[in-house]
């Protein structure tokens, strides 16, 4: 990548300093990469900044410039040099200074966001994955979900993905599978307080949406993110009260307004409400990249599902996925308990 005159949009004062220094040294070529990482060694760096959400620093090494930042469990490295070949060679030092941190194969990283007393807080955790090929039989009445897991790619940023269906239909488990299936090109960011996220604290929403290295045309290889808002039926309802209605407006503006067009993110909303009870603006053509209804099991589908797991004592009839797990483990006469949150049905 040749930086003619090094004209770029600076994403921070450190990046601006690096660009100015690269101009001074006549370094017109750049190589960049991003990879999973959680820490780096700041020894001998020219300048650094450490904040609760990011570590950023740069070095001058044999006439080249190397810049690295760590944000939400990923490192973003760029090397500026006098030739493309030297830029790529210099970039190899990034993983020495900032070692790669691979997650276990049975875990997936998720960034959880909330608004605290000192502002937006991000906590990165690794949770149990779900593999679509293994759980696909759990969704016989959910058309379009398999295509979304395997073949979906967003066309533009900021679009809305709507998952709706009765409680116990497996939406949360599908989220874990989605994070696993999309792991090579997308990351999951979970909003713990969605009404606050789209409420009166506009800086909270902007911080989460803008605090990334996925800006189109930035110095880094663009990445996609999925912003997850779970169980947000009140925000999307036809009769939403005034405060929640304002949150709905902010949600829709973030999806297909100027913010969404300039960033690579999707907003995935789950709700237990029927589609007919949601505001028509939510699912209008062009705004929704995917609109998926999670259905239950017919009596015949439930019997086949139980028999495939060695259960021969009859089925509960028409039911939801959570009912089948309860029926499988507890039998038809014991109380049924549904898994909640990111817990795997047990």
Structure description:
- The chain has 346 residues and is α/β, with parallel strands linked by helices.
- It has helices at 13-25, 84-91, 94-97, 132-135, 145-150, 171-181, 194-197, 202-210, 233-236, 242-256, 258-262, 299-307, 321-330; strands at residues 29-36, 47-50, 54-61, 64-71, 74-81, 107-116, 119-128, 160-165, 186-191, 224-229, 265-271, 288-294.
- The strands form 2 sheets. It has a 7-stranded mixed sheet with strand order 7-6-9-10-11-8-12. A 5-stranded antiparallel sheet has the order 1-5-4-3-2, with helices on both faces.
- The radius of gyration is 23 Å and the shape is elongated.
What features would you highlight for this structure?
alpha/beta, 29% helix, Rossmann fold, TATA-Binding Protein, 25% strand
Tell me the quaternary state. Answer: single chain
* The named CATH superfamily of the largest domain: P-loop containing nucleotide triphosphate hydrolases
Count of domains: 2
Distance between the termini: 50 Å
CATH topology of the largest domain: Rossmann fold
Helix content: 25-40%
Q: What best-fitting shape do the alpha-carbon axes yield?
A: elongated
What is the level-2 CATH architecture name of the largest domain? 3-Layer(aba) Sandwich
Which CATH top level class of the largest domain fits?
Alpha Beta
Tally the helices: what do you get? 13
Order of helices and strands: HEEEEEHHEEHHEHEHHEHHHEEHH
Strand order of the largest sheet: 7-6-9-10-11-8-12
* Largest sheet report: 7 strands, mixed
Low-confidence stretches: 1-13, 214-222, 333-346
> Averaged pLDDT, please?
79
């Amino acid at each position: 990548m040749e930086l003619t005159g090094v004209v770029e949009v600076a994403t921070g004062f450190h990046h601006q300093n690096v660009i100015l220094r690269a101009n001074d040294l006549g370094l017109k070529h750049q190589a960049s990469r991003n990879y999973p990482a959680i820490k780096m060694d700041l020894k001998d760096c020219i300048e650094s900044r450490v904040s609760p959400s990011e570590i950023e620093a740069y070095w001058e090494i044999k006439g080249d410039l190397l810049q690295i930042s760590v944000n939400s469990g990923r490192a973003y490295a760029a090397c500026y040099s006098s030739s493309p070949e030297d830029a790529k060679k210099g970039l190899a030092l990034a993983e020495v200074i900032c070692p790669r941190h691979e997650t276990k194969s049975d875990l997936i990283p998720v960034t959880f966001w909330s608004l605290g007393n000192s502002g937006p807080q991000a906590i990165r955790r690794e949770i149990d994955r779900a593999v679509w090929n293994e759980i696909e039989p759990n969704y016989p009445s959910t058309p379009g979900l398999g295509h979304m897991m395997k073949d979906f790619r967003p066309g533009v940023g900021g679009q809305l993905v709507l998952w709706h269906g009765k409680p116990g239909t497996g939406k949360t488990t599908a989220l874990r599978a989605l994070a696993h299936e999309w792991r090579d090109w997308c990351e999951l960011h979970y909003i713990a307080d969605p009404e606050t996220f789209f409420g009166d604290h506009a800086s909270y929403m902007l911080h989460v949406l803008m605090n990334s290295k996925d800006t189109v045309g930035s110095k880094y290889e663009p990445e996609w993110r999925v912003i997850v808002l779970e169980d947000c039926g009140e925000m999307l309802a036809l009769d939403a009260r005034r405060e929640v209605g304002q949150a709905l407006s902010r949600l829709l503006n973030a999806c297909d307004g100027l913010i969404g067009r300039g960033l690579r993110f999707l907003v995935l909303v789950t709700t237990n409400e029927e589609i007919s009870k949601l505001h028509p603006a939510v699912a209008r053509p062009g705004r929704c990249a995917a609109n998926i209804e999670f259905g239950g099991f017919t009596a015949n589908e439930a019997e086949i599902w139980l028999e495939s797991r060695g259960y021969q004592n009859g089925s509960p009839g028409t039911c939801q996925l959570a009912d089948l797990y309860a029926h499988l483990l507890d039998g038809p006469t014991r109380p049924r308990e549904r898994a909640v949150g990111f817990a795997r049905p047990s």
